[in-house]
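We store sequence with structure; for instance:
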Amino acid sequence: MKDYLVGGHSRKEVCEKYQMNNGYFSTTLGRLIRLNALAARLAPYYTDESSAFD
């Protein structure tokens, strides 16, 4: 995932490099996207607004 998300490599390149099925890649990426959305929704409950980003 790092090669794809950070390194900017194509999905095809990543799948070939790590011998990964494209369907598995898509499923894993979807999980990561859902986890990110969940963390973003929960973050306000765990952030102290008075000290945020100080």
Q: What stands out?
A: The chain is about 60% helix and 0% strand. The radius of gyration is 16 Å. The chain has a mean pLDDT of 90. The longest helix spans residues 22-42.
